[in-house]
Amino acid sequence: xxxxxxxxxxxxxxxxxxxxxxxxxxxxxxxxxxxxxxxxxxxxx
Length: 45
Known about the structure:
Shape: elongated
Order of helices and strands: EEE
Largest sheet: 3 strands, antiparallel
Oligomer: single chain
Number of helices: 0
Structural class: mainly beta
Helix content: under 10%
Radius of gyration: 12 Å
Number of strands: 3
Strand order of the largest sheet: 1-2-3
Low-confidence stretches: none
């Protein structure tokens, strides 16, 4: 039975704030970036 996919967040520092990338590891050789937002934004668009 396959494990359900999990979304993960990566914080990318940039200046005084940064960005947050939401991603999913699909397989050992593939990662999919689902969204990127500025840290000061409330939600992904």
